[in-house]
Amino acid sequence: MQTLDYALIVLYLAALLCLGFVRRLKKDSSVTEMILGGRYLTLPAFVASLVSTWYGGILGVGEYSFKYGLSNWLVFGLPYYLAAFLFALFLAEKVRKSELLTIPERLAQTYDNKTALAGSVIIFLMTVPAAYILMLGVLCEYLFGFPFWVGVLFGTVFSVVYVFMGGFKSVVRTDLFQFGLMFLGFIILLVVLYSRYGGINFLVGALPETHLTWHGGNSGWYIAVWYFIALATLIEPAFYQRCYAAQSGRVARRGIFIAIGFWALFDFLTTTCGLYARAILPSLADPVASYPALALEVLPVGLLGLFALALLATVMSTIDSYSFLAASTFGNDIVPRLKRISGTTITRYTRIGLIVSTMIAVVFALFFRSAVDIWHAFGSIGTPALLVPVFFAFVGKRRLTPHAAFGSIVISALLSLLWYVSKYWSVDGSYWLGIEPIFPGLLFSLAIYGLFSHNREQTTFGNNP
């Protein structure tokens, strides 16, 4: 990295702060204004914000592509496109029509406040951006030479400072800027790689044979697990928040369909670059750093800085969004269900939640050193807890009873958590019975739904009393 590269990064950070602080929240701003920006999200803003937010795991994608090749598309691509398609088909317009603010409000409306509180805690933990803060620490380590923990702390503070003052509108404004940078950087890298090393013939000759197979050397069972983890998309708070914030249900539905196309394009860029990384740097010690290491190897001054911006933009656009989701869950859904507070106080507790969620994320990032492990752990526990109660709170007429919904969330989460930690008690590091932890919790939740759901009139959409 040379002076020009660092100058580009400084300009990027300055532009980010300007966009984030251009309009601060007023003292009398409503909760809707803070959490959803007043529900004025247009189609271009919807697409750019959702695409950049949901693709923050760029170093995790690089790690998986480096290790297992093309199967990255079958693990982190296709299952999520299918799940997003289902969300657009069945949920997008219904979510917008509900005129609510968050997922827990729907749980309270359909079941009761106790169930909403249990769901809020799970959502809060699932939106804590630990995996993305980990990646930011790795990036700062490679690009600036900071110690990992310094990169984690410095990068995290910089990623959320403007959210503290500007709320959801600051998140969207910065997402629009970062959306363009993430595509530009990877297009530049791929063009340079192709021109210098050639295309498919170079990759076939330089890659291990398994890297060009659908499984990448993993079992079909392991890959299948990710299709179930991808069902977390149906309870993905970032999707719900943007649907709630959209100008209309039609904007929300069309926006997700368009976003799927952008994700597919970006997956092509990132997976291909991951293959080049494995071919060019086969002895790389830390696959999480495959993209920055590849860029340092092949890009000239100036273009290296632009690619660094792409990596930073991809990660930081997700950190600010998920930090804000966790904060709004804390301020709007957890605290008000523990004690009675006013609307203006919700804004204050949301800002407190931003600090709390960021601190928790930093601790998790320092404990786990693999983004893929973090996704696997939280997806395996949170998905079975929330999938059935949330999905059927919007779709169909069969509803769980309030007691059954509460029990389903709590027991499914605890069961999957217990199953997950069983690998630490095992001599060979395997789960009980060799079964992935997502399945016991999910099967329990489906069984509860089959036994304790019944037909009743569709819950009236509208604000929770």
Number of domains: 1
- Proportion of β residues? under 5%
Q: Characterize the main sheet.
A: 2 strands, antiparallel
Report the strand count: 2
Characterize the overall form.
globular
Ends: how far apart?
Answer: 56 Å
Query: What is the fold-level CATH name, i.e. the topology?
Result: Sodium/glucose cotransporter
User: Topology as H/E string?
Assistant: HHHHHHHHHHHHHHHHHHHEHHE
| SS element count, helices | 21
Look at the structure and name the CATH superfamily.
Answer: Sodium/glucose cotransporter
Low-confidence parts: 458-465
Question: Considering DSSP H and I runs of 4 or more, what fraction of the residues is helical?
Answer: over 70%
Radius of gyration, taken over Cα atoms and rounded to an integer in Å: 22 Å
- Identify the strand order in the major beta sheet: 1-2
Structural class label: mainly alpha
What is the level 1 CATH name? Mainly Alpha
Q: What would CATH call the architecture?
A: Up-down Bundle
Calculate the mean pLDDT score and round it.
Answer: 89
Report on this model:
The protein is mainly α and 465 residues long. It has one domain (3-377): Sodium/glucose cotransporter (Up-down Bundle). The chain is 76% helix and 1% strand. The chain has 21 helices and 2 strands. Strands 1-2 form a two-stranded antiparallel sheet.
